[in-house]
Amino acid sequence: MTTSTIYIGVDEAGKGPVIGSMFVSAVAVPDLSNIPDSVADSKQLSDASRETLATQIAEHSSIYTATIEVSPSDIDAPETDMNTLTVSAHATAINNIIDSNPASDVAVVVDASDVKPERFASRIQQQCNFSFELEATHKADVEYPIVAAASIVAKTRRESHISDLASEYGEIGSGYPSDQTTRDFLASYIEDYGSLPPFARESWQTCDDLLAAAEQSGLDEF
């Protein structure tokens, strides 16, 4: 695509879970009317609706996407933090879109992953290869269809990732710390192998707590 204007929306899925990767997706269009009418915030859609829309977005000739995966090992790296990784992934996704689809005018909206949206926007722009108009706002995936589309793509990639892990390891739940199925899976894995699974975020407090509980249980048995 070569166009005078390109509109880009960016959102993430999987920032808070204790297992699996985070995905940041950018969706770009030369015309906002290209976005399917039924697009909505991915969290408000059924799994089937989200998958259908993700397919429509992927197959549309005038919609372009870029998705960045941030692995658990990236997340656990001591030299970085989750906010920095999220900013970097947003910037990389935007850079990838523009590198493949040059435009003279770029307008970007991102769902702010920071309590201060203006700080989030500034940090992203500092890592981009060009200057452009960027708006960061909370609940952008609800207010802007282009960001909702990015939310759908990111969420679908995250769900596919979790499904692949479940196929290999059994029921692992959603991956969120509040999900009892996920907590039970991690506790059982630790009991069986004496360590966390390779796709767990070892730096998360949930993992520390489960490892400590397993160690205490072993001491009690001794």
Please, could you describe this protein's structure?
The protein is an alpha/beta fold. It folds into 2 domains: about 5-165, 2-Layer Sandwich (Nucleotidyltransferase, domain 5), CATH 3.30.420.10; about 170-220, Ribonuclease hii. Domain 2 (Arc Repressor Mutant, subunit A), CATH 1.10.10.460. It is built from 8 helices and 5 strands. It has helices at about 45-60, 70-75, 80-100, 115-125, 140-145, 145-170, 180-195, 205-220; strands at about 5-15, 20-30, 65-70, 105-110, 135. Strands 3-2-1-4-5 form a 5-stranded mixed β-sheet. Strand 4, helix 4 and strand 5 (about 135) form a beta-alpha-beta unit. Helix 1 (about 45-60) packs across helix 6, helix 3 (about 80-100) packs across helix 4 (about 115-125) and helix 7 (about 180-195) packs across helix 8. The termini are far apart.
| CATH class placement of the largest domain | Alpha Beta
CATH topology of the largest domain: Nucleotidyltransferase, domain 5
CATH architectural label of the largest domain: 2-Layer Sandwich
Give the number of DSSP strands: 5
- How large a portion of the residues is in β-strands, by DSSP E? 15-25%
What count of domains describes the coordinates? 2
CATH level 4 superfamily of the largest domain: Ribonuclease H-like superfamily/Ribonuclease H
The parts where pLDDT drops under 50 for at least 5 residues are: none
Helices and strands: which structural class?
alpha/beta
Estimate percent helicity. 40-55%
Computed CA radius of gyration, to the nearest angstrom: 19 Å
